[in-house]
C-alpha cells in the first residue's frame, strides 16, 4: 500500500516515506516536495499501483459518491463515474505548446512562451490542492527496461485519474526504480483546480471552468489544470505519449504516433505481419485493433488501440510498441455486432465514464444492444426513457479497461523490443471523395497522403461534430512541434529505412451514398481490405494504378458472402478528378499556413498529383 505523508513542519517528504512506492532519487524527492509546497495538499500519497491501493481508493470514492459501483455479478470490479457536464472531452483551444520559439510550436498549436505560461499557471496551482490528497504516480510507457520505453511521474489531486492511470500504464515501484539520478523522465502535474476550504463539502466531479493543458517540450514537463477528463487528466496519454514524445522522437530519431497496432497471421502458411493505422479520434482505431475477420485465412491479434511508438531496429526495419497498458475507448457504437472483442474485454475491472446506468446496476450506451432498455439513469444522473429525445450516454462516453483482458491480445504486447511493421494505414471519416483503400505510390507519396488527411470532427473534442478539417497523420491535436517539421521527420525516416520501409495505404470506411447511408459495411468486413493490403505487401496482387494511388483491380477485393456490396463498388472507389483538384486547392492553402517550412518533397507531390489528375 502507498504511504501517506502529512506535510507538516520540519520533516521532508523523503523522511516520511516508509512504505509503498519509495525512492532515494533526490531529484524526484525535490520535485515532489516543490509541487507539494506550491499546491499545498492535505497529504501526499506515493502510489504503488497495488490492488490494495486500488481497493482503498475506489472504496473512498464510492463512499464520497464520486464513483458508483456496478452490480458485482454483472460487472465485477467495475465502476461508473459521471463527469461535470462541461468536462466531457479534450479542450483543444485550451491546449498549449510552450516551446522557447513560437515557430517550433507551429501554426496548428496554441503557443505561449514558457516563462509567460509559468507565470500564468503559478497563481492557479498555488494552493490548488488544498483540502485534497496529492497522489504521486510513477509510470512506465512500455515494458520497464524495453528498448523504446520511457518513464514518467504524474502528480495529481484526482483519485479518478489515479485509478485510470493504474489501468492505462504500468504504474508503481518498478517504474519509480527506473527513474535514477540523471536519467531522462517526464514530469507531469495535474490539478482539477478545485481546492476545498476547511469543512467545505466536495462535489462528485471537481473541476474548474478555467482549463489549461500545457506542454513544455524542452524541459519534458506537462502542467494540466481544471479538467478531470481522460485526455486532459491522464497525462501519460496524449500529453506525454504523443505531444512530448513526438518532440523526443524528433530529437532522437523515432516517431510517436496516434496509431493502433495489430498482428496478422496468414493461417495457411503461418506467416505473420504487423500493421499500424492512424485514424483521428473516434474514427475506428479501437474497432480495427480488435478486428474479427469475416473471411477465412486470417487471425488478427491486438497490440494497441491508440498510441504507437516507432523506432528503427538493428536490422533496419521499423519496430513499434504500444506504450500503454489499457484502453480508454469510445463506448457508443461498441456492441456485440460491431466489436464483440471489446464487449468480452469489458467483462469486469472497468471504469466507465458518462455512460448510462441500468436498473440492474449494469451499464448501457447507444449501440450496446439492439434492444433499448425501457428505463435508464442517463449520463447526467437523470431518469431516461427511449422517448426522452436525448442520448442516454454522452457521445464521448468511454471505458477504461486493462489490455490484458483482451481475448485477442498478442503476446507481442509483452515484448521488450516491439514488432516490425509491414504496413501503415492513414484514414479519416470522409463521406465523399476518398476511396475505400488506395496504396500510396512511394514512401514520399505516403507522407503526402498522411499530411493531407482530412476528417469530419467527432465528439472526442469540444466543437462542432461533422465539420471537415485537416487532421494530418491524425496528429493535429497531438503533434508537440511544428507540423511541417514533423512531415520532414517522416520523410527523413523513409530515407533511413530505405527498402525496409513499411508500405503506406489510405483507407476510408465512412464513404456515403447519395441517400446518406454508408456504402461499406465496415467493422469485421474491414478484414477484406486488410486482406488486400497484405496481399499487396507480399506481392500477390497487382492492383491498378490511378491518379491517387493503387486501387484493387477487378476481382482482387474478396467479397465472398457480401456480394450485395458489388453494386456499391463503383461508388466506393470512384475518383472524381474535379473534386480531387478542388481538394488540391485546399491543400495548397493548407500548406500555405506553414510557409517555407513545408518540405519541398511534399510540394512536389502536390504538383505531381495535380499532373496525374489533369492527365
Ligand atoms: P479515439 O479513442 O478517440 O482515439 O478513437 P478510435 O479511433 O479508437 O475510435 P473507435 O474505434 O472507438 O470508433 C469510434 C466510432 O467509430 C464508434 O462509434 C464506432 O462504432 C465507429 N466505427 C468504427 N469502425 C467503423 C467502421 O468500420 N464503420 C463505421 N461505419 N463505423 C465505425
Ligand atoms: C482521443 O480523443 O483521441 C482519445 C481519447 O483517444 S483522449 O485520451 O481523451 O484524448
Ligand atoms: Mn485517441
UniProtKB/TrEMBL annotation:
Catalytic class of the enzyme: lyase
NCBIfam families assigned: PRK04210.1 (NF003253)
Phosphoenolpyruvate carboxykinase GTP-utilising N-terminal domain ranges (all copies): 30-250
Residue span(s) of domain Phosphoenolpyruvate carboxykinase C-terminal P-loop: 254-610
One Pfam family, short name: PEPCK_N
Function: Catalyzes the conversion of oxaloacetate (OAA) to phosphoenolpyruvate (PEP), the rate-limiting step in the metabolic pathway that produces glucose from lactate and other precursors derived from the citric acid cycle.
One GO biological process term: response to lipid
Cofactor note: Binds 1 Mn(2+) ion per subunit.
Reaction it catalyzes: oxaloacetate + GTP = phosphoenolpyruvate + GDP + CO2
UniProt-recorded name of the protein: Phosphoenolpyruvate carboxykinase [GTP]
Description of how the protein assembles with itself and partners: Monomer.
The keyword Manganese is annotated on this UniProt entry: yes
Keywords, ordered alphabetically: Cytoplasm, Decarboxylase, Gluconeogenesis, GTP-binding, Lyase, Manganese, Metal-binding, Nucleotide-binding
UniProt organism field: Leucobacter weissii
Protein family according to the UniProt entry: Belongs to the phosphoenolpyruvate carboxykinase [GTP] family.
EC number(s) on file: 4.1.1.32
GO CC annotation: cytosol
PROSITE patterns with a match to the protein in the record: PEPCK_GTP (PS00505)
Gene Ontology MF term list: GTP binding; manganese ion binding; phosphoenolpyruvate carboxykinase (GTP) activity
Cellular localization per UniProt: Cytoplasm
Catalytic residues, chain numbering: 283
Amino acid at each position: 500500500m502507498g504511504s501517506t505523508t502529512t506535510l507538516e513542519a520540519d520533516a521532508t517528504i523523503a523522511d516520511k516515506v516508509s512504505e509503498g512506492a519509495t525512492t532515494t532519487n533526490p531529484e524526484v524527492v525535490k520535485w515532489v516536495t516543490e509541487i507539494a509546497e506550491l499546491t499545498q495538499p492535505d497529504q501526499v500519497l506515493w502510489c504503488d499501483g497495488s490492488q490494495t491501493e486500488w481497493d482503498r481508493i475506489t472504496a473512498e470514492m464510492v463512499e464520497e459518491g464520486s464513483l458508483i459501483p456496478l452490480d458485482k455479478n454483472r460487472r465485477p470490479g467495475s465502476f461508473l463515474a459521471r463527469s461535470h457536464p462541461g468536462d466531457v472531452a479534450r479542450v483543444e483551444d485550451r491546449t498549449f505548446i510552450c516551446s522557447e520559439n513560437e515557430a517550433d510550436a507551429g501554426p496548428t498549436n496554441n503557443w505561449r512562451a514558457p516563462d509567460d505560461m509559468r507565470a500564468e499557471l503559478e497563481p492557479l496551482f498555488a494552493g490548488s490542492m488544498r483540502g485534497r490528497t496529492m497522489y504521486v504516480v510513477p509510470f512506465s510507457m512500455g515494458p520497464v527496461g524495453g528498448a523504446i520505453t520511457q518513464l514518467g511521474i504524474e502528480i495529481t489531486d484526482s483519485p479518478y485519474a489515479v485509478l485510470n492511470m493504474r489501468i492505462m500504464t504500468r504504474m508503481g515501484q518498478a517504474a519509480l526504480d527506473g527513474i535514477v539520478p540523471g536519467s531522462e523522465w517526464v514530469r507531469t502535474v495535474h490539478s482539477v483546480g478545485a481546492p476545498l476550504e476547511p469543512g467545505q463539502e466536495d462535489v462528485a466531479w471537481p473541476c474548474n471552468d478555467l482549463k489549461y493543458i500545457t506542454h513544455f517540450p524542452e524541459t519534458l514537463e506537462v502542467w494540466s489544470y481544471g479538467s478531470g477528463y481522460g485526455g486532459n487528466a491522464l497525462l501519460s496519454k496524449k500529453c506525454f505519449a504523443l505531444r512530448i514524445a513526438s518532440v523526443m522522437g524528433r530529437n532522437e530519431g523515432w516517431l510517436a504516433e496516434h496509431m493502433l497496432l495489430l498482428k496478422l497471421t496468414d493461417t495457411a502458411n503461418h506467416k505473420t505481419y504487423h500493421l499500424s493505422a492512424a485514424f483521428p479520434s473516434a474514427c475506428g482505431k479501437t474497432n480495427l485493433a480488435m478486428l474479427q475477420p469475416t473471411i477465412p485465412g486470417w487471425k488478427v491479434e491486438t497490440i494497441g488501440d491508440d498510441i504507437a511508438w516507432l523506432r528503427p531496429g538493428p536490422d533496419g526495419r521499423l519496430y513499434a510498441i504500444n506504450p500503454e497498458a489499457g484502453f480508454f475507448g469510445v463506448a457508443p457504437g461498441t456492441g456485440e455486432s460491431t466489436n464483440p472483442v471489446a464487449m468480452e474485454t469489458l467483462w469486469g475491472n472497468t471504469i466507465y465514464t458518462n455512460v448510462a446506468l441500468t436498473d440492474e446496476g449494469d451499464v448501457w450506451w447507444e449501440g450496446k444492444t439492439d434492444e433499448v432498455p425501457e428505463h435508464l439513469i442517463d449520463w447526467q444522473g437523470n431518469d431516461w426513457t427511449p422517448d426522452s429525445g436525448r442520448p442516454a450516454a454522452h457521445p464521448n462516453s468511454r471505458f477504461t479497461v486493462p489490455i490484458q483482458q483482451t481475448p485477442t491480445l498478442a503476446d507481442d504486447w509483452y515484448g521488450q523490443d516491439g514488432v516490425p511493421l509491414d504496413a501503415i494505414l492513414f484514414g479519416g471519416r470522409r463521406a465523399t471523395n476518398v476511396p475505400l483503400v488506395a496504396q500510396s505510390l512511394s514512401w514520399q507519396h505516403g507522407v503526402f497522403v498522411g499530411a493531407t488527411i482530412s476528417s469530419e470532427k467527432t465528439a472526442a473534442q469540444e466543437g462542432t461534430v461533422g465539420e471537415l478539417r485537416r487532421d494530418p497523420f491524425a496528429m493535429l491535436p497531438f503533434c508537440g512541434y511544428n507540423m511541417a517539421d514533423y512531415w520532414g521527420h517522416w520523410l527523413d525516416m523513409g530515407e533511413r529505412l530505405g527498402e525496409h520501409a513499411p508500405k503506406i495505404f489510405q483507407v476510408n470506411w465512412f464513404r456515403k451514398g447519395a441517400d446518406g447511408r454508408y456504402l461499406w459495411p465496415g467493422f469485421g468486413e474491414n478484414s477484406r481490405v486488410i486482406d488486400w493490403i497484405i496481399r499487396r505487401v507480399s506481392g500477390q496482387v497487382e492492383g491498378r494504378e490511378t491518379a491517387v494511388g493503387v486501387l484493387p483491380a477487378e476481382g482482387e477485393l474478396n467479397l465472398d458472402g457480401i456480394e450485395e456490396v458489388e453494386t456499391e463498388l463503383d461508388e466506393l472507389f470512384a475518383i472524381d478528378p474535379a473534386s480531387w483538384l478542388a481538394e488540391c486547392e485546399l491543400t495548397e492553402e493548407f500548406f500555405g499556413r506553414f510557409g517555407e517550412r513545408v518540405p519541398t518533397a511534399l510540394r512536389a507531390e502536390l504538383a505531381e498529383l495535380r499532373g496525374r489528375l489533369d492527365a
